[in-house]
Amino acid sequence: MRPINWGIVGLGRIAHKFTQDIRLVEGARLHAVASRSPEKAAAFAEQYQATHHFGSYEELVNCPDLDVVYIATPHAQHLENSHLFLKNKIAVLCEKPLAMNSREVDQVLAFAKSHDTYLMEAMWTRFFPTTKESIALVKSGVIGEVKTMRADFGFHKAWDPSDRVLKKELGGGGILDIGIYPLFLSLLFFGKPKEVIAKSTKHRSGVDDSTAITLIYEDEKMASLYCSVSTLTPVEATVYGTKGSLKLHSRFHQPKTLSYGNYYEEIITKTTPYLGNGYLFEIEAVGNDLRSGKKENDLMTHQMSRDLMELLDQVRKAARVTYPQDAI
Ligand SMILES: NC(=O)c1ccc[n+]([C@@H]2O[C@H](COP(=O)([O-])OP(=O)(O)OC[C@H]3O[C@@H](n4cnc5c(N)ncnc54)[C@H](OP(=O)(O)O)[C@@H]3O)[C@@H](O)[C@H]2O)c1
């Protein structure tokens, strides 16, 4: 198996977790890391035994034998950082959300196409065996025809004005950061809604805090979703059908356990454990894509990234949550 050499861009919280999982994947290697700070890059490289480290993202572009970069910077930087590597024909796995709005998503997808280079949004939820099984079960009709779903994602963010989640200029706020997960699930099970209703409260930092979302579909279907950066919620998702329901247990965006069954009958519960932090599945998927010369993943497609951002835009519009990037 051809080894895939990974580079990491932006050495914050998620970069640590992702890097820990690279070593769990056969044929994946931590090759290089890049930070805006040379000291941070050197320390990170030492901690995880990276071959190369760089004190700027630009320097990583010229790193020899680099196959793919994982972009783990704040949302507002995703477009610029992805472009840097795509224009140099280096494959990109970019953290969610792929960019700030649909205009930016169209731009970055166009970059990938014009440079004929691999790009995937790191929507890791799509690659868990439990997610795949839940989709197959719902498709098999085990809960009947899908009618409604409920999903929530809330955490309690302690007051820290320097945290990217609370900084408007970095794309902070609940909708883009975690609302994206229930919305992603709604696309998987229901497709695009015909109507989007959403209301947000504002955090004292200025970003959107808690948001209640109702999505209405053709054929009298509905999704009821919630996200919050100030309240810890169960982080569960349940899809209800005409015969029964299926639940993705907490935390549903990195699922291990699902339960399903007919209403009034015994519920079946299945757990599929995994190693590490759960990033191994997307790391493996990207490696397989690169080995087979693909420019796009079959599950987390470019169209899915477009649809997801279109939905995020609709929710933000309804909830009146804007960013400077929207006006450009
Ligand atoms: N898939 C998941 O499970 C998951 C979980 C959490 C977050 N995420 C996504 O990953 C991205 C990063 O999240 P995080 O929680 O890891 O953030 P974080 O801890 O704040 O780290 C972000 C890193 O980006 C770099 N950076 C570049 N420009 C920056 C700027 N202007 N201000 C601050 N940092 C800047 C910094 O690295 P250097 O100083 O090294 O350059 C920083 O450490 C977000 O887009 C988020 O949506 C995904």
How do the helices and strands follow one another from N- to C-terminus? Answer: EHEHEHEHEHEHEHEEEEEEEHHH
Q: Return the CATH architecture of the largest domain.
A: 2-Layer Sandwich
User: Helix amount, in percent?
Assistant: 25-40%
CATH class of the largest domain: Alpha Beta
Shape label: globular
Strand order of the largest sheet: 8-9-10-7-11-12-13-14
Hetero groups in this structure are: NADP nicotinamide-adenine-dinucleotide phosphate
Task: Report what the structure shows.
This protein is of the alpha/beta class and 328 residues long. It folds into 2 domains: 4-120 and 288-297, 3-Layer(aba) Sandwich (Rossmann fold), CATH 3.40.50; 129-273, 2-Layer Sandwich (Dihydrodipicolinate Reductase, domain 2), CATH 3.30.360. The protein is 34% helix and 25% strand. The protein contains 10 helices and 14 strands. The strands form 2 sheets. The protein has an 8-stranded mixed beta sheet, with helices on one face. The chain has a 6-stranded parallel beta sheet with strand order 3-2-1-4-5-6, sandwiched between helices. Helix 4 runs parallel beside helix 5 (102-114), helix 5 (102-114) runs antiparallel to helix 9 and helix 7 (174-190) crosses helix 9. The radius of gyration is 20 Å and the shape is globular. The protein starts with a strand and ends with a helix. The structure holds NADP nicotinamide-adenine-dinucleotide phosphate (NAP). NADP nicotinamide-adenine-dinucleotide phosphate binds at residues 10-15, 35-37, 40, 72-75, 77, 95-96, 122, 124, 164, 170, 177.
